[in-house]
Automatic annotation (TrEMBL):
It holds the Pfam family 3keto-disac_hyd. It comes from Xanthocytophaga flava. SUPFAM superfamilies: Anthrax protective antigen. GO terms for molecular function: hydrolase activity. InterPro entries: AL/BT2_dom. This is DUF1080 domain-containing protein. Residues 50-245 form the 3-keto-alpha-glucoside-1,2-lyase/3-keto-2-hydroxy-glucal hydratase domain. The keyword Repressor does not apply. Residues 1-27 form the signal peptide. Keywords: Signal.
Length: 626
């Protein structure tokens, strides 16, 4: 069975194709999917202590140290250590190269760690709000240790995350890891160190191509060998895990052999090519590598490479092409990528079943457009094969590097007007009247001036304006940090009944009018607008060192059945301290209720909403904690 697809990858990698070449993007290929580690019991792990258990859910108190509670059920792995029970947890399978994704939840002040192969630790810690993370903070690659060295020098080679992308305790955080095991020669001598190809925490890349020269401190095994099991620390503090997926890879890789090429000269037309891909050969021969460098011309050429592709195990394999010019790809005489004109940013892919052993391989490239560079890239991915190039590195030249254009906050808040690309769930849109605000505390946010919505917030650096200002640009900028997507719907609406759906956009009856914004003494804006006959002043300010944003909406005037929507999500759960957990523990909302006014939690279209009734002279204030 063969499936074919086509996707534009220009936005995937603005600064060239290095990430695509590494094959470590952790993108899910549905044809060679990751395996889920079922958490119905502890049978997928080696025997361990009673501190480890399976639960239906976990809840960590935002304010209480090491407080994590569970509810009965399945699907969540929990560590609840005490003085007598502090066992580590070892997975029931070994791995060499692997990809791993999971969700985790830290209790306040808690500490844990994930050891790849039981040897190389990625630190888990409640690092919420820390400005300058170290190797010991969440996402850090922990230090190695040498007892023979003098005091103060025993620890070495710890690597901090690029930035602190940690969320608050009690929230589900997401971790993605692409790991490459060390390599050894036939005599067992190590020739390549273990490497974290890519680590992503809460959507932010925190490590890329980081080598580890040996086991980190506290490793289960002091030596290095392949394979080894994942180990999770159990002796430091409460932690919970869910949605554990993994993909392991073999150490043997597909190879090309018996490669030959045949070269012809143009010019040629697309109609001629589509009718017949035969051509007059002016040069041919054997070649060691699949490379466009076998072409002696820069343009008006056609070249066909043929050979044998050997795969070590049977299964589904996905082929990807990034080629400048007309091209096609065949395996065993079957066309996987039909003849088409593409650029290297146009990645084509096709999946087919292959038996173990040799298969015929053919790729044809015909280039006529002089503005394109000669480029030929063919990649392969399988159930036990991490995406890898079959071509030489020089056959798919990188684009000229682009110096990033970053907007940082220095000395005073920054206010930037630009497009913002907003994606949440299945919804995707470009917000054309966005204003992004960067604070000195590092808590940043975006407002849509077309409807008054607080669209998103993030902690850390401010904006990457490269897509907006490099070359011709497209007008948009991207947040530089773990971004909480909130919504892009109106803040206020009239709801005649409790089941009236919240509008996705403003209706004519809303009579919305933007009134601009004013800056306070610190340089932060208060946005003003009118809606449903009321006047609104919308002020969002960082608090608690940037750990939260507090939004205050002052409303003058009133309208019958007027509500303000505070939050929306899969679920909204009231907490003992009066706060609310929003959308599967994505963030907290802490409300300051006006006298005599109670918030409303309702369910509409299988989603929950937190609403506040609006009365005359009402002031609505709440904090977003993430």
């Amino acid at each position: 069975m063969m499936k074919f697809s086509f996707v534009n990858i220009r936005q995937t990698c603005l600064f060239g194709y290095a990430l695509l070449l590494s094959g470590a993007l952790l993108a899910q290929n549905k044809d060679v999917p990751m395996k889920q580690l079922l958490l119905e019991d502890l049978s997928n792990f080696k025997p361990t202590g009673s501190n480890w258990q399976i639960a239906g859910d976990a809840n960590a108190d935002l304010n209480q140290e090491n407080a994590l509670k569970t509810s009965k059920g399945k699907g969540v792995l929990v560590n609840l250590p005490d003085k007598k029970n502090t066992s580590n947890l070892t997975f029931g399978f070994d791995h060499a190269d692997m990809d791993l994704t999971l969700d985790f939840m830290m209790a306040k002040g808690s500490n844990s760690g994930i050891y790849l192969q039981g040897r190389y630790e990625l630190q888990l810690l409640d690092s919420w709000g820390k400005k300058n993370p170290s190797y010991g903070d969440c996402g850090g690659i922990y230090q190695r240790w040498d007892d023979s060295k003098p005091e103060g020098q025993k620890g070495y080679q710890g690597i901090p995350p690029r930035t602190n992308a940690s969320l608050a305790p009690g929230l589900w955080q997401h971790l993605e890891v692409a790991f490459q095991a060390p390599r050894y020669d036939a005599s067992g001598n190590k020739i390549t160190n273990a490497k974290f190809l890519r680590v992503v925490l809460n959507g932010v890349v925190i490590h890329e191509n980081v080598e580890v020269t040996g086991p980190t401190r506290g490793a289960e095994f002091p030596d290095e060998k392949n394979p080894g099991p994942i180990l999770i620390q159990g002796d430091h503090g409460p932690v919970a895990f869910r949605n554990i997926y993994y993909k392991t890879y073999g150490m043997s890789i597909p190879t090309l052999s018996d490669l030959q090429y045949s070269y012809g000269k143009g010019p040629f037309s697309s109609d001629t090519l589509k009718a017949d891909t035969k051509f007059k050969v002016v040069q041919s021969g054997k070649t060691q590598d699949l490379t466009i460098e076998n072409v002696p011309a820069a343009n008006d050429y056609i070249i066909r490479h043929t050979g044998k592709l050997n795969v070590k195990s049977a299964g589904k394999y996905t082929f990807y092409t990034q080629i400048n010019g007309f091209n096609l790809l065949k395996i065993d005489g079957k066309t996987l990528a039909p003849l088409a004109m593409t650029g290297t940013w146009d990645e084509r892919s096709a999946t087919t079943d292959l038996s173990a052993g040799d298969h015929t391989f053919e790729v044809l490239v015909a280039k006529r457009d002089s503005w394109m560079k000669p480029a030929l890239g063919v990649f392969i991915e399988g159930a036990d094969v991490r995406r890898m190039p079959l071509n030489t590195l020089s056959s798919l030249p990188l684009d000229a590097p682009v110096n990033p254009i970053l907007i940082n906050v220095e000395g005073e808040p920054k206010i930037v007007r630009c497009f913002i690309d907003f994606e949440k769930g299945t919804k995707s849109k470009r917000i054309t009247h966005a204003v992004s605000v960067g604070s000195l505390e590092g808590a940043n946010f975006t407002v849509d001036l077309n409807n008054g919505a607080l669209v998103q917030c993030w902690r850390g650096d401010f904006l990457n304006a490269t897509p907006m200002w490099h070359d011709r640009g497209d007008g948009h900028s991207d947040p530089m940090g773990s971004t909480l997507k909130i919504n892009d719907v109106p803040n206020f609406s009239v709801l005649p009944t409790n089941t009236t759906a919240w509008p996705d956009s403003l209706t004519p009856e809303a009579n919305y009018r933007g009134r601009g914004y004013e800056l306070d003494a610190t340089g932060l804006p208060t946005f003003k607008y009118s809606i449903y006959g009321t006047e609104v002043e919308d002020m969002t300010r960082p608090e608690d060192g940037g750990k939260r944003l507090t939004r205050t909406l002052k409303v003058s005037g009133s309208a019958t059945n007027l509500y303000c929507r505070i939050a929306e999500g899969k679920d909204i759960v009231a907490q003992p301290d009066g706060s609310y957990l929003i959308d599967d523990k994505s963030y907290f909302i802490k409300l300051t209720n006006p006298a005599g006014v109670k918030p409303v939690v309702r369910t509409v279209n299988n989603r929950q909403e937190l609403l506040m009734p609006v009365t005359t002279g009402n002031q609505i204030s709440y904090s977003i904690i993430w």
